[in-house]
Amino acid sequence: METVNITINNIQLEVPKSTTILQAARMINIEIPTLCHMKLEDFCIENKPAGCRICMVDVKGRRNLVPSCVTECTEGMVIETSSPRIINARRTVLELILSDHPFECLICPKNGKCDLQSLAQELGVREIRYTGEQSTYRMDTSQAIIRNPDKCIMCRRCELMCNTVQTCGVLSAVNRGFMSVVAPAFEQNLDHSPCTYCGQCVAVCPTAALTEVDQTSKLIQALADPDKVVVVQTAPAVRVTLGEEFGMKPGTIVTGKMVTALKRLGFDYVFDTDFAADLTIMEEGTELLNRLTKYLNGDKSVNLPILTSCCPAWVNFFEKNFPDLIDIPSTAKSPQQMFGAIAKNYFAKQLNIPREKLVVVSVMPCVAKKYEAQREEFRVNNDPDVNISITTRELATLIKQTVQDFNSLPESDFDRPLGESTGAGAIFGTTGGVIEAAVRTAYELYTKKPLPKIEFEELRGMDWIRKATVDFDGLKLNIGIAHGLGNARKLLEEIQAGKSEFHAIEIMACPGGCIGGGGQPQHHGKSEIIRARQKAIYEEDRRLPLRKSHENPYITKLYEEYLGHPMSELSHELLHTEYFQKQPEIIIEND
Amino acid sequence: MSHIKIKLHENQLQFIKDTCKEFNYEPGELINILHKLQDKFGYLPSEVQEVVANELKIPTAKVFGVVTFYSYFTMVPKGKYPINICLGTACYVRGAEKILDEFKKQLNIKVGESTPDSKFSLNCLRCVGACGLAPVVMIGEKTYGRVAPDDVKKILSEYQND
Ligand code: SF4
Ligand code: SF4
Ligand code: SF4
Ligand code: FES
C-alpha cells in the first residue's frame, strides 16, 4: 500500500494514499467538526458534497483554507486544524448558515438531537453578526413524513439516500442561490411523488427539515379516554435501540424495561409484534411451500421467486416502480397489520367489545408503518386495524415526558395471548432475519424432521445482496437477500429479465433492515451502531426458549380456536392482502 | 410554486421521445435536450419533464432541479407579449427596479409569471447592450428607453385592444 507522510498539529504520521485530511485527523483523535459530510462505513455510503465548509483546515502553502472532508493528504503536507484563523472562519460559516435558519430550537422536534444545534453549541456561537431576509417555503405534511424546508441546510444527505441508496429519485436540489432547497419534482407534495416513506432521508437529516409525523398527542388522548381499551404492540427492532435514547450503549436490549414503561404509560395490554411475526411466518412459510410444491409438480405458471412483504416501504417501491411484478410478492400482510387484524377481530371478541372501542397502537422502527396503517384495505367501516403508529423516537419522548427514570425501571413480561413470541419473531428486525425465520419453519414443515442446526449463518451479515443455498433434505432452495431499495431494484431487474435463480427473496428497505429504520434513534452516520443493534437481535433470539414460529403455543392455539390452519379462508380474509399498480401515469390526450 | 397542468398531444409526446433518442438517451445531454424542447414548446411544463425523465431513466426531481436552476428555462408559457426588463448595471442604477415593481403592481404577477389571460409575461434580463437608453424595457421585439415608473401604465395601454 502506498503511503504518504503528513503532519497534523505538529504530530507526524503516515497514512495510506488517498486518505482525506478528516480521516487522518480522526486516526489520531483530532476532532474536526463536520456538517454535510456523512459516511456509513459498513454500507459504503458517503456523502461529500463539500458544501457546508465547516470542516475547513489550514494547509501550509495554500492560500485558502481547504475542506478536510474531501481534501486528500499528499506527501509532506503540513496541516493545522485549530488555529485562530480556522476558528474564526468556522464561526463565520456557521453564523452565515444560522442567519438563514429559523430560531425555533425551543419547540423544534429535533431539539437536543440536531447536528446544527450541537455545532452552534460546540463552537460557542452567542450572536449572529449577519442578519437579513430568511428564505421561507411551504411545509409539506405527508402521511408519514413532514418536510419543513425552512430548516434545510442543503447538506444533501437525504438526496444521497433517496437517489443513490434507495433509487427512489424523489428528492433533488432545486432552484438557485438563496431559494435553493431539496424538494420533490415540481415542489409537489411527497404524497404525490414516488416516495416510498422509507424514511431514510429522515434518518440522516441533521436538522428538522425532515421529520416523522408526530402522533404522540393523539396517543395521549386515546390513553386518557376512559371509553377506550388501548393495546400496544412493539416491533422486534425497537427493544434493541430504545435504550440509546436514554444514553445506553448501542446494542443494549431493553425488552423488560420497555414493557414496564408501556404499562406505566397506561396501556391496558402490552403485546408484541413478534407474536404477529410468528404468525407471518406460518402464513408466508406455508405460501412458499405451496408455491414450491406446485412448481416441483410441473406447474410452470406459479410465481417464483416468492418475495417477502413485511416492509411497507418495499411494498410501495414495487407498486410504484415494478407494477408488472405485483403478483410475485407474498400476499401475507406485514406483522404490524396481522397484529391489527387479529387484535380487532379475535381479541376484541375475547374482550367482548366492539372493534371501534379497541385502540391498537404500534411502536415501530419505521416511518413507512405510519403510512401503512392508513392504507384503505387495512380498515373496516373506516376503522383502521392499527389506529396509531409511533416510532422508537416518539416512544422515547413519551417515556421521558411521563415515566421517571427509564434506566432504573424493573423488567416485566408482555401480556398474553398476543405477547408470546419466539426467537424467529425476534430476528425479523434485521436484514436476513425474516427469511431465516421462514426457513426454520418451512424446513420442518417440508421435511417433517427437526432442524439439525437452528442458526443459518449463511443468511446473516451486512452485505447489500447476499445469496445462499439451503438444503431441504435434498431439495436445494436458493435464497436471496437484499436490503436498501437500490439493491432490491437489482434483484427485481433480474426477475424481469427472466434471469433470477432464486426461489425466495427477502427484501428490507432500510440499510441493515429495521434496525436501521427511519424511525430509530439517530445514528449520526455511525454504522457501527447499526452493527451493534444487529448483534443484539441475534442475542435476543438465543435468549428465548422457543426459536421456531410454529412452536409458539399461542400461535397453535390461535389456529385451533379461530383461524383453522395457515392459508385457511379466514386467514386469507384477515392476514393476506393484495397489491396495486401505482405507477405515475403520463396523460396523453388525442385530438 | 404554481404550475399549469397541461396534457400532451400524441405528436408532442413523439417529439420529446425523438429528441431524447437524438441525444442517445444520455443523461449528460439533459441540458441540450431541455434546450431543444423549450425552443419547440416555448416552455417546459411538468409533463414534458416527466417524459424526459422517463426516457432518460433519471429522477423527475433531477430534471426539475435543472429546469429551476437555469434561469433560461421556464415552466410557464410566455405571454403573447413577453415583457423583459433589463437589470444590467446601467439600468439598475437608473432605477430599473422601480420600473420592475411598477410592472409587477400593474399586472399583479411576479417575475417569471404570466397574466391569467396569457397576454403578458414578466422577466428580467442582464444587460441588453443599450445602456445609453437606460433603463430599458423590451416588450416582444419593441424596445422602450429611458422609462420612468409613470410611463408603465401608458406603455401597457398600447396593448389594450389586442
Ligand atoms: S422516504 Fe425514502 S423514498 Fe421518500 S423521500 Fe425519503 S428517502 Fe426518498
Ligand atoms: S432536508 Fe435535511 S438532509 Fe436534506 S439537504 Fe436539507 S438538511 Fe440536508
Ligand atoms: S426495513 Fe423496516 S424500518 Fe425500514 S421501511 Fe421496511 S419495515 Fe420500515
Ligand atoms: S463537512 Fe466538509 S464541507 Fe461540509
Put simply, the count of helices of chain A is 18
Share of residues in helices of chain B: 40-55%
Overall mean pLDDT of chain A stands at 94
Sketch the major β-sheet of chain B.
4 strands, mixed
- The whole-angstrom Rg of chain A is 25 Å
CATH architecture field of the largest domain in chain A: 3-Layer(aba) Sandwich
Runs of chain B with pLDDT <50, length 5+? 1-5
Number of domains of chain A: 3
* Structure class of chain B: alpha+beta
Tell me the total number of β-strands of chain B.
5
Q: How would you describe this structure to a colleague?
A:
The complex is a heterodimer of chains A (591) and B (162). Chain A is α/β, with parallel strands linked by helices. Chain A is 34% helix and 16% strand. In chain A, strand 13, helix 7 and strand 14 form a beta-alpha-beta unit. The model of chain B is unreliable at 1-5 (pLDDT under 50). In chain B, a hairpin with a 2-residue loop joins strand 4 and strand 5 (142-144). The chains are: A alpha/beta (591), B alpha+beta (162). The interface between A and B is medium-sized, with 23 and 25 residues. Strand 23 (588-589) of chain A pairs parallel with strand 1 (8-9) of chain B. The structure holds iron/sulfur cluster (3 copies) and FE2/S2 (inorganic) cluster. The site of one iron/sulfur cluster has 14 residues of chain A, from helix 4 and helix 5.
